[in-house]
């Protein structure tokens, strides 16, 4: 069922765009679940719509006439990851939730790996005000991008960053270290994963992976569609041009905003391996 009724309060700004985004997410998600618009923001250029699909959040951009221009799963979301659709409630699973406002309110995003530049998140740069940190996780907040500048470590929830060492609306990058989480298999038991993007500069449809993927077909990214990748510190990824870890390959130990300049090339990845310390 597709529902425009909100789960969080917002002023409906473009019902046509919201309906188009709901339909687009329904096609991408390909599951018989209820979809809800949880947030909608309108500008002359486009309408941004956040949709909840069984606890999984998607971001959609729609033009003023209702044409969908972009659909992407929000960073680090995999099912409901132990969280209810109300992300303000605490969790004991290996995921961290960021909030734009104090007291776990406002726009939120679930993350489960390092973020080198907050500009590529839904929260945006210098906009973080509160954070949920589950059991067995440690989060390091940095004032500058790429894990630089004044920093502080958190091992518990923080409802107001205004009184902390980094301050309110001041975080530009984040490290996440969870000793129990989504790891396992080839991923080495660490929940830090690599985030893949369909477009250059960490844009477009995205998905975070924690283990090896022998066949890209069937993932959110798809086969031969990868254009950029974020690799957290302590991890490296090997990309292959063919399925089952065959063909031309390249190893990456850091973020790469443009795979076209690597050995494997743009829109050419069919499988990959992930290794995290």
List keywords for this structure.
277 residues; Gamma-B Crystallin, domain 1; 3 domains; disordered N terminus
Total number of helical segments? 1
CATH top level label of the largest domain = Mainly Beta
**What is the number of domains?**
3
Helix content: under 10%
Per DSSP E runs of 2 or more residues, the count of β-strands stands at: 17
Q: What is the CATH homology-level superfamily of the largest domain?
A: Crystallins
How much of the residues is beta strand, in percent? Answer: 35-45%
* CATH topology-level name of the largest domain: Gamma-B Crystallin, domain 1
Unreliable runs: 1-12, 75-87, 180-190
Structural class: mainly beta
Q: Which second-level CATH architecture of the largest domain applies?
A: Sandwich
Structure, explained:
It is a single chain. The chain is mainly beta and 277 residues long. It has three domains: 2-73, Nuclear Transport Factor 2, Chain: A (Roll); 96-178, Crystallins (Gamma-B Crystallin, domain 1, Sandwich), CATH 2.60.20; 185-276, Crystallins (Gamma-B Crystallin, domain 1), CATH 2.60.20.10. 5% of the residues lie in helices and 38% in strands. The chain has one helix and 17 strands. It has one helix spanning 15-29; strands at residues 2-3, 35-42, 47-53, 56-62, 68-73, 96-101, 105-111, 130-132, 137-144, 148-154, 173-178, 194-199, 203-209, 228-230, 235-242, 246-252, 271-276. It has a five-stranded mixed beta sheet, covered by helices on one side. It has a three-stranded antiparallel beta sheet with strand order 7-6-8, with no helix packed on it. The longest helix is centred in the N-terminal third of the chain and has 15 residues, at 15-29. It is globular. The chain starts with a strand and ends with a strand. Mean pLDDT is 77; it is low at 1-12, 75-87 and 180-190.
């Amino acid at each position: 069922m597709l529902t425009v009724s909100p789960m969080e309060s917002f002023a409906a700004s473009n019902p046509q765009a919201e309906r188009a985004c709901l339909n687009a997410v329904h096609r991408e998600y390909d599951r018989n679940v209820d979809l809800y618009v949880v947030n909608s923001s309108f500008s002359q250029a486009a309408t941004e719509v956040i949709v909840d699909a069984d606890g999984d959040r998607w971001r959609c951009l729609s033009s003023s006439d209702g044409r969908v221009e972009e659909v992407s799963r929000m960073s680090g979301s995999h099912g409901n990851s132990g969280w209810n659709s109300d992300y303000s409630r605490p969790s004991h699973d290996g995921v961290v939730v960021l909030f734009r406002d104090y007291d776990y309110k406002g726009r939120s995003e679930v993350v489960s790996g390092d973020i080198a530049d907050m500009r590529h998140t839904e929260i945006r740069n210098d906009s973080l005000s509160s954070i949920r940190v589950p059991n067995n996780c440690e989060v390091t907040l940095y004032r500058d991008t790429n894990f630089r500048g004044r920093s502080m470590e958190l091992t518990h929830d923080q409802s107001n960053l205004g009184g902390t060492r980094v301050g309110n609306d001041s975080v530009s990058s984040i490290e996440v270290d969870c000793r129990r989480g989504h790891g396992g298999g080839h991923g080495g038991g660490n929940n830090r994963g690599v985030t893949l993007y369909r477009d250059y500069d960490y844009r477009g449809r995205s998905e975070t992976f924690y283990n090896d993927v022998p066949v890209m077909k069937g993932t959110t990214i798809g086969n031969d569609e990868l254009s950029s990748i974020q690799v957290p510190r302590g991890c490296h990824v090997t990309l292959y041009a063919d399925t089952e870890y065959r063909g031309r390959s390249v190893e990456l130990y850091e973020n790469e905003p443009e795979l076209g300049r690597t050995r494997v090339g743009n829109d050419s990845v069919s499988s990959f391996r992930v290794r995290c310390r």
